Amino acid sequence: MIMKAEAHGRQANVFTKSFIDFLAMYGHFAGEDLDDEEGGDFERAVYDEEEGEGGDGGSGASSRTENTPLIPKSQQTPQGDATPAKAVFLLLKSFVGTGIMFLPKAFQNGGIVFSSVFLVTIAAISLFSFLLLVESRQVVPVSFGDIGGHLYGPYMRWAVLFAIAISQIGFVCAYMSFVATNLEALAINVLNATDLYPSYFFVLIQLVVFVPLALIRNIARLSFTALIADAFICFGLIYMYYYDIFVLSTEGLADVVPFNPKDFALFIGTAVFTFEGIGLVIPITESMKEPEKFPKVLSGVMIGITVLFTSLGALSYAAFGSETKTVVLLNLPQKSHLVQSVQALYSIAIMLSIPLQLFPAIRIMENGIFTRSGKYNMLVKWQKNFFRIFALIVCAGIAIWAGEDLDKFVSIVGSVACIPLAYIFPAMFHYKTHPNKTTRVYDVILCAFGVITMIYTTGNTIYSWVSN
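Above: the chain sequence. Below: its structure as tokens.
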């Protein structure tokens, strides 16, 4: 689309170009080369450290400093031309989605005071960790997984890719369950189909939309879905703010608690799930014309979305109290045509976002399973097609299984996959790339925080799930 505009001597529309750029981020998710061009076998460039250090066998190594890149410039990804304003837009697109609709229930699990304080704390820790990854990449300027591979060996690279794939699949499953819940509510309140369809039907019916979209290999063709999805999400968020304030002004504060000692661990996993956007940190950094401005841009965006997340979570919980639903849209008056429109539009928005969320996981798994391109081999191409369909069916099965315990499933995904990506791996990489005693203390503390939080929240959530 952009190239066609430029070929005719016209400047591409700024909004169109921004959405195309955002989709390109998913083709370069976590800095990985995930573009599906079906254009031949992919061979990863391997950096020979001895060759990179120079032919004299030691002069290159002796001239290295803490900030000297471990990868030669000839093998580094060239920087883009994105302005700070465009980077803000891309970051907002990365962070704001379905997770915000799970926060009111998470606030009920944690208590309004604990949740507000801890969400701000998680935001600060996440920002610190994201910046550690940016600093590590300045020394090892490759993808997220390749940083781990260069510093700790191939097993670390696969650990990073595994965590990325699991987190993205978890997002897709949570999104499918979210959409199914809203579609079921619409069927009951609009069509009066109380017992006509079982709950799992509303998960399976989504495959009619997802299968064709998942088979699209040129991710830029999904630009129209991203644009529509953003408009619908903004509409849903604005209405939620309006209704929360309306309920509080007319009915007063609901039965909220400052701290919930029974279920607060569920809040922690959901909070990490909500802030998990580390996969797009590297490609957005690469897209900037002046990447040195990225830390300031990221800090501003994190402050903004923290205010957004905390205010919406606290307002909704304050309005609905112990009656807060896992999907907060169900707390709205279900017979209202405007509410039904919000549910329908938000569900459509998330449905249009699911193929983007699945794309990195699909490409990571395809790169690991298939060794040949399907561009000139129809058998390989259809094997990949069937693999994508199978992956969607598995996601649908998990979404059906999660069912009424969606809040616990989201917490599990946040604990098992998002915590290592957001806290553990960046701290480990920074520890190796910056051998400074002071910074290493912070790295160790962050890594320990990630490990302890992951073990505790995972165990606590599983126990709560099983016991209920």
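Confidence is low (pLDDT under 50) at residues 1-16, 39-76.
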